[in-house]
Specification:
Blueprint (H helix, E strand, L loop, with lengths): L1 H14 L8 H6 L4 E5 L7 E3 L2 E3 L1 H12 L4 E5 L2 H10 L3 E6 L3 H4 L2 E17 L10 H4 L4 E4 L3 H8 L5 E3 L2 H9 L5 E4 L4 H7 L7 E19 L4 H14 L3 H8 L3
Parallel strand pairs: 1-4, 1-5, 7-8, 7-9
Antiparallel strand pairs: 2-3, 5-10, 6-9, 6-10
Helix pairs in contact: 3-10
Amino acid sequence: MVANKYLHCLLFACLLPCGLCLSSHSTASALPNLTIVTELSPPNQTYDNGVVGGTSTELVKQIVEQAHLNANYYLYPWARAFKVASERKNTLIYSMAKTTLREQSFHWIGAVAKFELGFVTNNYRQDVKVESLEDAKKYRLAVQRGDIAAEQLEQYGFEYVLTADIERSYQLLVTNKVDLVLDDPRYIQPMAEALNLPKDHFRFLFSVPNLSVKGYLAANINTPDEVINKLRLAFEDVKRTESYKLVLSGYH
């Protein structure tokens, strides 16, 4: 009789609608797929054969995998990436500097990049000499729209050409339409390679004060709390890995 009752209960459970017998796996699968956007910024963010890669991208992928979430990655000009992440829930963006204006508009997961920014020119432009901020003001400069560097340089009294992304800034530099761009000295060789130029095509000139920043993985403010909590917990795990320490130390 007990066996018959057990069989009856088992059969009844099998007839329940799927929505009434959720397992932990089905709960996880009910979480939204994430859209993750970024810009081209080698070696942190690269684009090869239709695949978004790079050192920061690998950290982000580790975080998403550790959180047991699914995501699609897209590479856009920075201004567009920022607009998409600002307006669409379940959308993440990296590597973004945390500023007072941005802080309340996103959920901040954790730092996935580090930048020490300064002025860069073409190596053959020996006529371009920058040993101070005042020196740099004599030259034509390109800065990406929405970049934190634009805010800082405006405070220093700079005028500059705004571009859609760092690749466009470098293209203007290569064609001598501007004399300077802003970048981290560790990243100018990867950018030269991405543009199919010799590794030593660019030359770093001068570090800009107060432009040492971390680039964060952040999420649209309307992304569900459950997703944010999973990502933050996953970030704490990834943060302890050697690959994370290597990227954030700057030697990658």
